[in-house]
Amino acid sequence: MKEPDVIRTLKLSSWLRIQEIIEGEGPEAHDGDYVQVNYVCRQSNGNFVHSIVDQFSGESSPVTLPLDENQIIKGLKDVLTGMRVGGKRRALIPPSMGYINENLQPIPDEFGPRRSLLSHAKEPLIFKIQLLKTL
What we know:
The protein has helices at residues 74-80, 111-119, and strands at 9-11, 17-22, 34-43, 48-51, 63-66, 88-93, 125-134.
């Protein structure tokens, strides 16, 4: 894994913003793949929304996501497609590319975290995501 000399922000016409924090060296994720990831989700002002990584112990419960925009929020699909295993990215995802319906992944199973995440669906969200493997 290699950290870039300068973290640059890729600005797409869809208002999606992506920063490469660590460049992975493993296989690249492609459209239609399943990927295993860790992520932390925050509001655009930095307030915590949801995470699968425990902030104290560092332990995580990775989730498996399909790179299919009918099953995952489009912003995350665009962030993960082309990313290499071992890499980390930060993305600012606009509401139009986020949780446009309640069935899109990633979404927690537990009521409280699910409700918290969906209550912020109409605002930009920041995802810090780590690609662990492609399946």
